[in-house]
From TrEMBL:
This is Olfactory receptor. InterPro entries: GPCR_Rhodpsn, GPCR_Rhodpsn_7TM, Olfact_rcpt, Olfactory_Receptors. Its main location: membrane. Keywords: Cell membrane, G-protein coupled receptor, Membrane, Olfaction, Receptor, Sensory transduction, Transducer, Transmembrane, Transmembrane helix. Residues 39-285 form the G-protein coupled receptors family 1 profile domain. One of its GO terms (cellular component) is plasma membrane. GO terms for molecular function: G protein-coupled receptor activity; olfactory receptor activity. Belongs to the G-protein coupled receptor 1 family. It is a multi-pass membrane protein. It is found in: Cell membrane; Membrane.
Amino acid sequence: MKLHTNVTEFILLGLTEDPHRRKMVFVTFLFFYLGTILGNLLILVTIRTSRALGSPMYFFLFHLSLSDTCFSTSIAPRAIADALSRKATISFSECIIQVFMLHFFGCLEIFILVLMAADRYVAICKPLYYTTIMSPQVCTILVALAWVGSCVHSLAQISLALSLPFCGPNVIDHYFCDLQPLLKLACADTYVINLLLVSNSGAICTVSFVLLMFSYVIILRSLRNHSTEGRRKALSTCISHIIVVILFFVPCIFIYTRPNTTFPIDKMIAVFYTIGTPLLNPMIYTLRNAEVKNAMRRLWSKKLVSDDTR
């Protein structure tokens, strides 16, 4: 790092420089982050302790909630602390680590959503082969590949950032470190790097979104041959997945498919997919899924019974 830059730290401007609005940002981010942690931890504990939620869909949901928790934690705590700071600074090393964590868990969420769509496709369109195709061993291997693939993707992003020199200025017009605002500070031509960024992050987001939407179109078409009750249950699950996909992918595609171009609205859109979506995911899955709600009720009932017996 010392060979590539004279900058030892960056200044994060945040969402606003107005002191009163910064307090509003602090309260909002704190509320969203606490809701994200509590909601996703509840899902993690419920799936881990409930025998009724042992299907591959809930195995993938477990890892989705885990990635949501880590994804939000990579950004929210520092953003909350910086909202009360007069001058928010982050060291060069911490900035690079944040970029790595952001892209690692963001990419992991994308891969898990793809696996969840594949699981629903097999369950609805190939029900006779479901237990064979989506066996526990296969699901474990698929999730392991998702973690490895996310790590490779994130390391590629870091290599792009470290390949450029930073010699000043050191002010990032954002509330967290990301490649596009970071590359604007590089004292070198970043055109090729931005194209590589689009071909990596942008392509992953766009291709995955198209594949997901195409798969759900096929799934929804196949529901015409199911019974009314089976159609209602499958439709409820698929709608939940589609909502999550749209809420996460559309902002990401907007941000990561524009080489070397930024808009003032980018920071607000980033708030939506970095702070808002991790909070909405557990709400969507619990409010629209009867099995998860029933498992949570049983878990809560067991806790009350154990407390009464003490």
